[in-house]
Write a structure and sequence with these properties.
The chain has 2 domains: 161 residues, Rossmann fold; 125 residues, N-(1-d-carboxylethyl)-l-norvaline Dehydrogenase, domain 2 (Orthogonal Bundle). Helices cover 45% and strands 19% of the residues. The protein has 11 helices and 13 strands. A 6-stranded parallel sheet has the order 5-2-1-6-7-8, with helices on both faces. The longest helix has 22 residues. It binds NADPH dihydro-nicotinamide-adenine-dinucleotide phosphate and ketopantoate. Pathway: Cofactor biosynthesis; (R)-pantothenate biosynthesis; (R)-pantoate from 3-methyl-2-oxobutanoate: step 2/2. Catalyzes the NADPH-dependent reduction of ketopantoate into pantoic acid.
């Protein structure tokens, strides 16, 4: 007789920085399972890990699963890097969820829908800041998590767990704003090997303005109504607020890992092409980073 799989209200797929952060918080208020990439990583995580917050460090030990021993889940939160989106989404689908919510950067909704036909799958936005130091996860900056309508149970669970989280009816606009920020800060910091704050200072600020000016007509076509002044205030505001941070793309480049180039600049250049709009500066940063990835044999499965 087939054994019934355990069913959790929430599963988090991707036991990296954000996954560990959300699972640690959610585990304080209810059942949650953290799904690792494989059995070996799951076994290490099952020993627990350290969650570092401003209030101090605590040991947490949420239940852990892996593709060979997968529970079911009502709702799945997907937090893997862009190149891993399709594989992780297929894994999420195997948990027979009511819905799959990505909180990744970049544009991944099309990949999600292709990987999960017929399932309720969408992308939200988070500005939480977290990074890993070995097995530890450091909650580096308190942000906000916006989820699309239809994912209320996830917003409620995150809010109960102490995260700032809510349903955002204009989620499309929120995603496009985050995309604009990432299209400027991530490639420039990765190419120049500098912290975020330098994007708002000479000489990079001029290049940043060029990227913003090229991006606006494309994003306007997608529904983002921002004047150049508002767009610059948004991007330079984030650069200054996170001045001492290393962007995720810079961290990937420094660690020799694949970057999220394809779901950020790659996806954006494809959008521009569909609209017949020229984005030469985005194409230039795209080619430079693609060349860096190709030279290291780093690819993309999305
Ligand atoms: N960290 C942050 O502060 C923020 C991150 N984001 C976005 O969130 C997403 C995740 O970022 P972050 O947590 O930093 O990334 P990490 O690289 O720290 O974590 C990603 C995790 O996903 C795991 N993974 C990859 N493929 C699979 C798979 N098929 N099944 C299960 N697990 C898998 C990786 O495993 P392994 O370790 O084995 O590679 C890794 O542990 C990105 O899109 C990022 O841009 C957005 C806002 C803030
Ligand atoms: C907002 C920003 C640029 C913060 O570092 C980010 O999202 C990233 O690094 O990917």
């Amino acid at each position: 007789m087939a054994t019934r799989r355990v069913r959790y209200p929430i599963a988090v797929v991707g036991a990296g920085a954000l996954g560990r952060l959300f699972a640690a918080g959610l585990a304080r208020v209810g059942p949650v399972v953290l799904v690792a990439r494989d059995a070996q990583r799951a076994a290490a995580l099952a020993q627990g890990y350290t969650w570092v917050t401003l209030e101090g460090a605590r040991r947490v030990r949420p239940p852990v699963a892996h593709p060979g021993a997968l529970p079911e889940a009502d709702w799945v939160v997907l937090v893997v890097k862009g190149p891993d989106t399709a594989a992780a989404a297929r894994l999420a689908g195997r948990m027979r969820p009511k819905g799959v919510l990505s909180l990744q950067n970049g544009l991944v909704e099309a990949t999600l829908r292709r990987a999960l036909p017929g399932l309720h799958a969408a992308q939200g936005v988070t500005t939480e800041g977290a990074y890993r130091e070995g097995e530890r996860v450091v909650w580096a900056g308190r942000g906000e998590t916006l989820v699309p309508p239809g994912f209320e149970p996830i917003a409620q669970a995150l809010a109960q767990a102490g995260f700032r989280a809510r349903v955002e009816p204009s989620i499309h606009e929120a995603r496009l704003k985050k995309l604009l920020v990432n299209l400027v800060i991530n490639p420039l910091t990765a190419l120049a090997r500098v912290e975020n704050g330098r994007v708002a200072e000479p000489p990079l600020d001029a290049l940043a303005r060029r990227l913003i000016a090229e991006a606006l007509p494309v994003l306007r076509g997608e529904g983002l109504e921002l004047t150049p002044r508002e767009a610059e205030a948004l991007v330079f505001g984030v650069a200054r607020d996170t001045a001492r941070n290393r962007s995720s793309m810079l961290q990937d480049v420094l660690a020799g890992r694949p970057t999220e180039l394809e779901t950020l600049t790659g996806a954006f250049v494809a959008l521009a092409e569909r609209r017949g709009l020229e984005v030469p500066t985005h194409r230039a940063v795209y080619a430079l980073l693609q060349a860096w990835e190709q030279a290291r044999g780093l690819g993309d499965d999305a």
